[in-house]
Every structure is written in C-alpha cells, then in structure tokens.
Amino acid sequence: MSYVVPIGPYHPSLEEPIHAKLYTEGEIIKDAEVFIGYNHRGIEKLAQEKNFIQTLVLVERVCGICSHSHPFAYAQAIENIANIEVPKRGQYIRVIMAELERLHSHYLWLGIAAHLVGYDSLFMHIWNVREKIMDILEAISGNRVNYGMIIIGGSRRDISDDLRRDILQVLDEFKAEHEKIKEILLNDKTLSMRTKGVGVLPKDVAIQMGTIGPHARASGVKVDVRKDAPYSSYEDFEFDVPVVEDGDVFARVVIRALEVDESIKIIKQALENLPEGPVNLGMKIPKVPAGEFTQRVEAPRGQVIYYVVTDGGQTNYRLSIHVPTFKTAPTVPYMLRNNSVADAGLIIASIDPCFSCLDR
Amino acid sequence: MQKFKSIEIKKEEIVPIAEKMKSEGIRLLMIHGYVDKEGKKVISYQYEVGDTVEAYTVKGEDVLPTISHIYDVAASWPEEELHELIGVTFEGLKMRGRLFLPDTMFEGKGQILVTPLSELVKKTQGEKE
C-alpha cells in the first residue's frame, strides 16, 4: 500500500522547521522531497542596507550555533577586498573561538543524536560536559551565543595570561571526559544497532552531490577548508582531518567524536603559542573600495561561503551567504530511500541541519 | 590566504567550462548572482581550485543553460535560488517550486533582491490583511 507521509514543517523530531514528503510502500520510504523556506528572514536583502560594522552584527544572527563562523567569514571577505591584514594575535584568537564553537556544536549534535535514538542518559551526560565549553566561551566573550568577538581588522577582545591558563586547565578536564564519552559513542551496542547501516550516503554519491563538512567526511570525502585553503593562520597548527568511509548515521557520530580531538589540539597549540601584539587595528568603520571576494570558512557543519560585492560606498552592494545545510540538505531524499519511516527523523537530523542558516 | 579570481565569459561557455571542471574533479563551490547598477543580471559560477575561488561571470542574460545535469543538486539548488532572487531562467532545470517565499507574493515570478525593501514590506503586510 502506498502512502505520502508528511514530516514537518513543525515536528517533534525537528529542532527547526522543514517540510519533507515521504513516498512510502508500507513502512519503507521509496522516495522523498524536501521543502525549505520556513525561516527566511531576508538577511541578504537587509545586508544591502547596512554598513560593514552593522553587517557583522546582522550576520552573527544568521545562526545561533555557528554565530562565530558567519562574521568570521564576512570580516575576512571585507578584509581581503580592503587589503587589511589582521594582527597575528587577532588571527589566533579568531581560530580559538572557531574551534571552541566546533566543540560545543559537535557536542550539541552528539547529544541530540543520543536523544533521538532514545539514549537519554547519554544525551544528558554529553550536554553536561558541553557546559565546560560554554563556560569558556562566556569567559572569553561575555556571551554563550552571539559572541561579538569579530571586528573588521581583528578580534574584539584579548585573552589574558590568567584566562589562558584557566582555559587550558578546563580543556584538560574536557578532554578526560571526552575520552569516556568517545568510548561509549564508538563501542556502545545500543547506539550502533540503531545507527549502523541507516541513512547511507556512499562516497561516489557524496562527491556527485557536492556535499561538504563532517557529512562528506563521514562518507569518505576528505574535504576541509582549514587544510585545503587555510585562512587566519590555520597553516600554523598541526591537526588531522579524520575520514570515515561507511557513510551511515553511525559514521556521522564517529566523525564528530574524532573531530573533537583535533579541535582540542588546535586550541591548545593556539593558546600555548599565542603571539604577542595587538588583537585588532582599532574600531573605525573601514574604507572599503569597490571589489568582490568569496571567503570560505570551515564552520562546525562544513563550509560557510560569503560572497561580497562592494561599490566603494559604506554598504554591501551584494552579500550572498551560503551555509553547509545548503549542500547537505539536498542529500536527504537520497539517504531516506529504502529506510523505514521510523528512522526518517534520525536521518534528517543526521546531517546536523541548521535551517535558520539555510533559509537566511 | 585564500585567493579570488574573476573571469568574464559568454553564456555559451558555461556548459563547456562546467564539463571541463567536473572532468578534472573540481568542485562547484556555488553559483551567486545579483543585479548590477545598469540593471544587468550578473551570474557568477564559482569553482574551488585549491586555495583559489575561480569565478566565471556572465552578465546581462535572462536565460541561461542549466548545469544541473553535470553537478547535480550542487547546481540545481543555487539555480532555483537565483531564479527566485533575480528572475533568471535556467533552461533544462527541473524546478521544485519556491524555496523561500509564497508563490502568491510575486505572481510566481522571483524578484526578491531587485524589489525595494519598502515594497517587500508592503507586500508582506498586504498578505497579512
């Protein structure tokens, strides 16, 4: 018997609105369609009315989870057009914030994944440990989200020696907790039974669809802007880009658990080798000539792409924002095929979607 | 340090360039678009070539060929978006309906970026009444 099963736009298994139509034969999904647009706020249009400082504040609000990645990408695009060089210490602090953001984002998703498979004790444990990272972010920036750490020409705040020592100590505690959580994530039978072989995206399909971020790396595609096109001194740090070949929901759990280790490595190197000097070039509105630039940043979920066109005036002539979910959501219909309706929520969530980002 | 290179091309070159890039294993980063000060539509096909973004730009065309048969959803989603934002038609593209705004807002034609903000507000408020 054939059915069309709607999921969303508002559904208990979705953190944000999206609409999926599942075409089923009994319990099995034969095909699917995804519809977006429920969070569209016209941010690109609004950016055409804002100056470069106002735009930093605006783009930070594209997304609540990767709110550092957006101004990080935008500021670098403007700095490239205006030929502004950010002081080395400012670059390192930007990297520290970006990697802390990756830690809390990956932990947020790992917790949600545990919750969706019904493993709520693990979900609560993961989110409890995540608080250590949220505390560090608050100590550095004063905020738990929308950190306001990026300005054109550097970072808004410095990290003192005392704070640096405190962060390193908390990171050690976090690392110890992460080893225990990783052991559960990689070896627990309940989790693997519920996620192995579910929502598979093979490597060749991932390449054909042009997907990115941890979603691609969980399908064996080694793509990471931090290595492929380094920015903000990422070339100074030693870290690996883990890749898992299986392409199922379990692989997406594993890849994030492994990436947490790499982010800790980067943060430690940046803190231990923080260069002396200023963190920014001052707070003035920059003079930006006419030009265009596309900046890529490896946000927690994959590439954030900012294309900026300026005309020599005080506002953006065009700001085009594209986020990882724009490249991972199109893979959802493929992954849903030949899985059961009961797994649809888990498969959709497994791309670590951000529909606020996607819709802008 | 990332780099950016912009090259202006004719519409006839879009598909051959996409085929060449694909055959070399180069990823389509994104297709961006806007309307310039002379009212011409500008579409920028951007590819990731190592640390450089190569942008192949077409100006002043209302109808362009799709490259979704070459780059699959990596091309079809941006093409659908551009149709909605600035009203470019992509020949051969299978449209799934609107991405961001209701069909009734612009009588089915996409013009978000080229409509003044004040007019957009009026249209939205009109829908609420």
Class per helix and strand makeup of chain B: alpha/beta
Sheet with most strands: strand arrangement of chain A: 1-2-3
Order of helices and strands of chain B: EHEEEEHHEH
**Distinct helical segment count of chain B:** 4
Structural class designation of chain A: alpha+beta
Mind explaining what this structure looks like?
Chain B: Pfam families: Complex1_30kDa. Chain B: One of its GO terms (molecular function) is NADH dehydrogenase (ubiquinone) activity. The complex is a heterodimer of chains A (360) and B (129). Chain A is of the alpha+beta class and 360 residues long. Chain A has a single domain (2-359), classed as Cytochrome-c3 Hydrogenase, chain B (Orthogonal Bundle), CATH 1.10.645. Chain A is built from 15 helices and 8 strands. In chain A, the strands form 3 sheets. Chain A has a 3-stranded antiparallel beta sheet with strand order 1-2-3. A 3-stranded antiparallel beta sheet of chain A has the order 6-7-8. A two-stranded antiparallel ribbon of chain A has the order 4-5. In chain A, a hairpin with a 4-residue loop joins strand 7 (302-311) and strand 8. In chain A, helix 2 runs antiparallel to helix 3, helix 5 runs antiparallel to helix 6 and helix 6 runs antiparallel to helix 11 (249-272). The radius of gyration of chain A is 20 Å and the shape is globular. The model of chain A has no long low-confidence stretch (mean pLDDT 90). Chain B has helices spanning 14-23, 68-71, 73-86, 117-128; strands at 3-8, 27-35, 41-49, 52-59, 63-65, 89-91. A 4-stranded mixed beta sheet of chain B has the order 1-4-3-2. Chain B contains 4 helices and 6 strands; from the N terminus they run E-H-E-E-E-E-H-H-E-H. The model of chain B has no long low-confidence stretch (mean pLDDT 83). The A-B interface holds A 33, 35-37, 40, 42, 44-46, 48-49, 76, 80, 208-210, 223, 228-231, 292-296, 303, 305, 307, 309, 311, 317-318, 320, 322, 326-327, 330-331, 359 and B 1-2, 4, 6, 27-30, 32-34, 37, 44, 46, 48, 50-53, 55, 71-74, 76-78, 96-101, 112-113, 117, 120.
